[in-house]
Each structure stands twice: as C-alpha cells, then as structure tokens.
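Sample 3 of the quickstart, ligand NAP:
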Amino acid sequence: MLSKVALVTGANKGIGYAIVRNLALQYAQRISTVPLTIFLTARNQNLGQESLKKIEQELKSRQILKDDSGKIELKFLRMDLTDEQSIKDVGEILERDYNGLDILINNAGIAFRGNVFDTNVVRTTLATNFYGTLNVCNHLYPLIRPNGRLVNISSGVGKLKILSSELQKEFSRDDLDINGLIGLMKKFEKDVEENRWKEEGWPTQSYAVSKVGVTALTKIFARRADSEGKNILVHACCPGWVATDMTVPNASRTPDQGAETPVYLSLDEEVVPKTKNGEFWIYNKVVSW
Ligand SMILES: NC(=O)c1ccc[n+]([C@@H]2O[C@H](COP(=O)([O-])OP(=O)(O)OC[C@H]3O[C@@H](n4cnc5c(N)ncnc54)[C@H](OP(=O)(O)O)[C@@H]3O)[C@@H](O)[C@H]2O)c1
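Result:
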C-alpha cells in the first residue's frame, strides 16, 4: 500500500523532535489504514541519526512502528536550511522514491541569545528563518499532494504590530507575492546596514522580523494553494513559550505541548471547516496576526 509521507525540519531536538514523536503517536491512533513515513530532518547527520534512534526506542513499547507491524516508519534525511542543495536533494528523494509528500512542517529556526542586533545578526537570522524556510517551501511545496498540509512554525513575537503602520500595510497586502516579500526583507537588511531601521519603521529585533516574514510567506503559499485548487491546507502557528535550547528551562510549556498546534494543523480534520487558508494559529485556535 502506498504510504503517506510527512517531513519535519530541524527535528533533532526541541519542538521538532516532539513534533515527530507526537505525529507518529497521533497518526497511529487514528483509524486510517494507510501507513505513514515520517522524515526527521536535521542539518547534522550524527545528531539526526541519534534522535531518530531515540524516538524509535521511545515508540517501541507502543507497537506503532513498521518493525512491530505498525503503521509508522521513521527515516532520517540531512537537510540544512542554509544549504539549498541539501533541500533540493531531499526533494529529489521524495519525488523519486515516494512520488510526493503529504505533510510538510517547517520547524527549524535560530535565535541569537541576548539583545544583540547588527547587520550580521540580521543576515544570519534571516538566512535560516526566512530564506531557509522559503527555500524549503519553494522546493517541496510543489511535491505536496492534494489534501496535504503545509505548517510553518512562526512566532507570536512576529506580529504585524511590531512594524510601523506603513510596513504593516505592505506586509498584509492581499497581492503581496514572493518577490515583493523578498523586497521587504531586503529593505530591512539595507535599513539596518545604513543605520536607519528605526526611522523606516522596523523594530530592533531580527528574530521577530524574520518571523513576520515566515507568516507573510505562509499567506502567499496559502493563496497559491487556493488559486491552484490543490486543496492543500497552509497555516502558520506559534508553539507558545516552550522550554528548549532556544529559550530557558523555566519557559511555560514543554516541547510536547509546543508540538500540539503543529500536529493538530497537520492531522486534524476539524481544521478544514474551521477557517479559511493561511491563518496564524496558537493553542489550536486562529488568532489575529
Ligand atoms: N521555544 C519557543 O518558545 C519558541 C517560541 C516560538 C517559536 N519557536 C520556533 O519553534 C521552532 C523550533 O524551536 P525550538 O524552540 O525547538 O529551538 P531549538 O531547540 O533550538 O531547535 C531548533 C532546531 O532547528 C535546527 N536548525 C537550526 N538551524 C538550522 C538549519 N540551518 N538547518 C536545519 N536545521 C536547523 C536546530 O538544529 P541544530 O541542533 O543543529 O542547531 C534544531 O534542531 C523554531 O522555528 C523557533 O523559532 C520557538
């Protein structure tokens, strides 16, 4: 029987790791007889392989893995968001061996610690969070099959209100396309380089602006999915404030709790009638961007 296929980026630890495990558990609990192959991807081969083994060990007692006659198969693929060739390579494998993809969860991301802000911080943050996520969408969205899902992990700190009203208008235009969005992100980089980001309406926060970009690109891909009539659900979400290496140990949610909304958006049938495409979600609910 042809397997369904899911892929999670940045899944060797933190929320991505929890998404892979919870996706496996929740998919297996549903009545579907179709098997699911989940690709755990990570930029570091060893860390990725180790995490795959760890999840397999954790799931052994649940009897849901293919080796235990269950429906779930876990596999590792190397993918670095800042290395476009590694994204293309993954796309080729999915196309050649699986004829496509059903669930894509863009989770990988970085955040500098402390209040550092300069041209280098902005470029590095955008390279992974914005351009990396965009490249994964560019190469893998075309492989998503009808009735598939695309979930981008953004953040509640990337709300429009952090921008000037002029920039808010630009980012929320219904006719904003990818080139227009790249133009806005390049303007942010240039305004920082030329030391006039504040007067141009940007906050002193590279991570937050990168996530504004992730939510904006999600809306563009949602409009594309609707116009192509492919019946693909495309949404952005915030996992909440989660205790991972990115934050602090006393953050309010566990990685499993952080995985709840992305897994809900990937699997749940309720999502379909609940809303239009391209929304921003937190705690399984649509909120304003
Ligand atoms: N934690 C929170 O409170 C929170 C809140 C809102 C949004 N988020 C978002 O949730 C997502 C997951 O964050 P987290 O808290 O789980 O952070 P984390 O524990 O630091 O995990 C981040 C993951 O992304 C991977 N990654 C970083 N750069 C990459 C690249 N160039 N290519 C491929 N993978 C890369 C990391 O791999 P390495 O191990 O190799 O570095 C790691 O697997 C991020 O997008 C983050 O912005 C988190």
